[in-house]
Design a protein that fits this description.
This protein has 146 residues and is α/β, with parallel strands linked by helices. Helices cover 50% and strands 19% of the residues. α5 packs across α6.
Length: 146
């Protein structure tokens, strides 16, 4: 099971999804139905922010001085009985731009699912890992948007 904490750093998010915290509660319920076998609650935080903050975070933690769509910060120190996975940051402007061809909420779902998989150890450095991660992303996305 998962528990999603939502932090809204940019008010523009609320213009696209009126009750964004409720939106994530619904996604959390659907995801937990999909993961019905897991009793352990895994928690993470989603920071809904803007390009400026994403650029700052990307520069500070990755040494890349430009904005990006999603950043994941897995919890490095695993404490006993600690089920906190880490944090995900998502750029409003990039989600909004990509949603011109699809739907805003679909692009948002793609971003947080991608971040969630990074928190769980997935990466896309090698092509084979990229394919595994994409397959898992698509499977979760379909479950959340049936």
């Amino acid at each position: 099971m998962i528990k999603i904490h939502v932090v809204i750093d940019s008010p523009r998010w609320k213009n696209k999804i009126k009750n964004i915290k409720n939106y994530f509660k619904i996604k959390q319920c659907k995801f937990n139905t999909y993961l019905n076998s897991s009793k352990t609650i895994k928690e993470f935080t989603v920071l809904l922010t803007n390009n400026s903050k994403m650029k700052s975070l990307n520069n500070k933690f990755r040494g890349i001085n430009k904005t990006t769509d999603v950043l994941s910060f897995p919890l490095k120190t695993k404490l006993k009985n600690n089920n906190y996975l880490g944090d995900i940051a998502i750029s409003y402007e990039i989600v909004n731009k990509r949603s011109k061809k699809t739907l805003f909420d679909h692009e948002l779902d793609k971003m947080w699912i991608h971040g969630y998989l990074h928190l769980n150890g997935y990466d896309h450095v090698k092509n084979i890992d990229f394919k595994k991660m994409c397959k898992k992303e698509n499977l979760i996305f379909k479950q959340l948007n049936f």
